[in-house]
């Protein structure tokens, strides 16, 4: 879980579900510890290695300046909303917060802990999938129990999809209608989150200088 917290790796949600699959509801504590430790390590490493690059890049990007202004103005409540939102995904959200200088480490950790209900839901789905996958346990179930477990898995997935969509819309509406800042700033900040995977300063594999050298070599 710590390893897949580094961008651009994937599989975090699958591992959380596997915690429930392997350990039942007790897997929630493993998932919570892994998410907090993994995200904290990513935040610290990216801040330590790329702080100068972040400042240089954000100084030339209007959308990023707008996002920093919005986060600075709204503080922890907005950070929690962005953290719970499905976009940007887990690994990109880790680098997103590391890229915003206004975000303090303790705020990032608190926002990550607020993911607990979402983690609990994924662990629950995993535990019910394990009950259906275990041949001995499934043999002890009657049809009614199997149907109930199947419905719980399907319902959990449905709730996850709906709440993810709802939170994402809430984040976008919240940013676009933030009081005390120009509407242009709110709009640019919302666009920065939507396009983060393409424009993030810590995820672009090549610097402008390297791109320039590559272009000259091709020419």
Helix fraction, binned, reads over 70%
Estimated structural class: mainly alpha
Q: Major beta sheet, specifics?
A: none
Strand content: under 5%
The average pLDDT score comes to 78
Ranges where pLDDT stays below 50 over 5 or more residues in a row are 205-219
Q: What sort of overall outline do the alpha carbons produce when their principal axes are compared?
A: elongated
Radius of gyration: 20 Å
Order of SSEs, N→C? HHHHHHHHHHHH
Task: Report the end-to-end length measured between terminal Cα atoms.
Answer: 43 Å
Number of H- or I-type helical stretches: 12
Beta strands, count: 0
Structure notes:
The chain is mostly helical and 219 residues long. It is 78% helix and 0% strand. It is built from 12 helices and no strands. Helix 2 packs across helix 5. The protein is elongated and about 65 Å long.
Short description:
The chain is elongated, with a radius of gyration of 20 Å. The protein starts with 11 loop residues before the first helix and ends with a helix.
Fill in the keyword field for this structure:
disordered C terminus, elongated, mainly alpha, 12 helices, 219 residues
SSE inventory with pairings:
Blueprint: H1 12-23, H2 27-58, H3 62-74, H4 76-84, H5 90-99, H6 105-113, H7 116-133, H8 135-140, H9 143-176, H10 183-194, H11 196-199, H12 208-218
Helix pairs in contact: 1-2, 1-7, 2-5, 2-6, 2-7, 3-10, 4-6, 4-9, 7-9, 9-10
């Amino acid at each position: 879980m710590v390893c897949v917290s580094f961008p651009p790796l994937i599989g975090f949600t699958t591992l959380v579900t596997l915690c429930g699959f392997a350990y039942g509801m007790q897997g929630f504590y493993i998932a919570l510890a892994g998410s907090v430790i993994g995200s904290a390590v990513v935040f610290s490493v990216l801040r330590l290695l790329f702080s100068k690059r972040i400042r240089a890049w954000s100084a030339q990007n209007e959308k990023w300046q707008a996002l920093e202004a919005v986060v600075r103005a709204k503080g922890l409540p907005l950070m929690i909303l962005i953290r719970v939102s499905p976009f940007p995904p887990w690994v990109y959200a880790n680098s997103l917060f590391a890229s915003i200088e206004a975000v303090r480490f303790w705020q990032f950790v608190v926002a990550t802990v607020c993911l607990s209900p979402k983690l609990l839901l994924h662990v629950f789905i995993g535990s019910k999938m394990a009950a259906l996958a275990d041949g001995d346990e499934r043999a002890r179930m009657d049809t009614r129990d199997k149907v109930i477990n199947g419905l719980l898995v399907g319902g959990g997935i449905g709730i996850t999809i709906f709440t993810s969509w709802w939170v994402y819309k809430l984040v976008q509406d919240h940013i676009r209608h933030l009081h005390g800042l120009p509407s242009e700033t709110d709009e640019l900040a919302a666009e920065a989150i939507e396009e983060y995977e393409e424009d993030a300063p810590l995820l672009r594999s090549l610097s402008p200088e390297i791109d320039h050298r590559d272009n000259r070599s091709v020419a």
